[in-house]
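Q: What residues go here?
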């Protein structure tokens, strides 16, 4: 076979798997696409055929319309060209998967985005030993060590209790973060109605259709200021400081993101209550995962590659940086 992994090749628009004639998470429309999860920096419309988990395909259907879908459930395997392909939980959002590629006696794992913390909305990450591990590095700096999620939610609920005449307006990404946050709030015993911005409605409804209960949700547009006082309101991050928020009762502005570890980020977004809740692995979890899968090589993308590359080299693991375009954290 020659060089390890010579049958897969990174291009700016995605990872090309030559013996399958297919692309992983391509940013351009391709004839064959293998998709790790439904976030827009990984899933696009217009592909000829799409292999993904049934949940990811359902999310893509809501966002991009009907797909020429090839569903592959967790625990199943399919053959594409000369490559055996399986999907293993990544723990990022509902339906998110690592894509396991096996060819010529080599195993490559494209992890997509992943986290190691428990998440009531999706299956937990499963480590898969491999020859090449392709990892994100969104929070690939030692400064990023995420706190306990329950403690962050308790901080939110305490603020709500302390200021019952106000509401708490939380910026949370529409796919994954918003639904996880609702479930984490429910798990801390808060079962009051939660209000939402209309942009979250379709995906919240889809999560419930796919078996993730969210409790009582109410549309902000159908409520008065008095009704929303003392309640939690969730919106996309871009709406936090929008004119739309003026309809709310003196909102405490909050944001749920791993980036809230950086105080300057919170100040830039005028966030009064930063909540460090991330859907990505932190530094310790990134390095722990690499140890667990024990690859011969690590290919790094999507973030702070230099620090993780240095860590790999100091642990005698060959590493390289991938320069893929269009990969953002979607407000984590």
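A:
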């Amino acid at each position: 076979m020659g060089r390890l992994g010579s049958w897969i090749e990174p291009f700016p628009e995605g990872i090309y798997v030559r013996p399958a004639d297919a692309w992983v998470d391509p940013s351009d429309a391709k004839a064959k696409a293998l998709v790790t999860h439904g976030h827009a920096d990984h899933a696009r419309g217009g592909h000829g055929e799409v292999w993904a988990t049934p949940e990811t395909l359902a999310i893509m259907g809501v966002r991009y319309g009907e797909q020429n879908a090839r569903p592959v459930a967790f625990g199943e395997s399919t053959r594409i060209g000369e490559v055996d392909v399986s999907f293993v939980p990544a723990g990022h959002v509902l339906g998110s998967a690592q894509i396991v590629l096996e060819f010529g006696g080599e195993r490559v794992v494209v992890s997509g985005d992943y986290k190691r913390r428990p998440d009531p909305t999706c299956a937990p990450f499963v480590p898969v030993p491999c020859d090449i591990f392709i990892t994100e590095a969104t929070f690939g700096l030692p400064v990023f060590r995420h706190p306990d999620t329950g403690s962050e939610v308790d901080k939110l609920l305490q603020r709500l209790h302390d200021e019952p005449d106000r509401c708490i307006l939380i910026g949370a990404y529409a796919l994954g973060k918003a639904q996880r946050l609702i479930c984490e709030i429910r798990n801390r015993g808060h079962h009051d109605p939660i209000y939402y911005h209309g942009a979250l409605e379709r995906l919240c409804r889809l999560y419930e259709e796919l078996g993730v209960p969210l409790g009582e949700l109410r549309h902000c547009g159908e409520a008065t200021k008095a009704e929303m006082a003392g309640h939690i309101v969730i919106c996309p991050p871009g709406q936090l400081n929008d004119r739309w928020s003026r309809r709310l009762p003196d909102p405490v502005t909050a944001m749920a993101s791993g980036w809230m570890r950086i105080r300057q980020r919170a100040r830039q977004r005028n966030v009064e209550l930063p909540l460090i809740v991330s859907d990505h692995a932190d530094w310790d979890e990134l390095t722990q995962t690499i140890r667990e899968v024990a690859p011969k090589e690590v290919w790094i993308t999507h973030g702070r590659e230099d620090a993780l590359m240095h860590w790999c080299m100091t642990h005698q693991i060959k590493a390289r940086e991938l320069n893929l375009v269009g990969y953002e954290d979607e407000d984590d």
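A: Context that may help when evaluating the design: The two ends are 38 Å apart (CA to CA). The longest strand covers residues 83-89.
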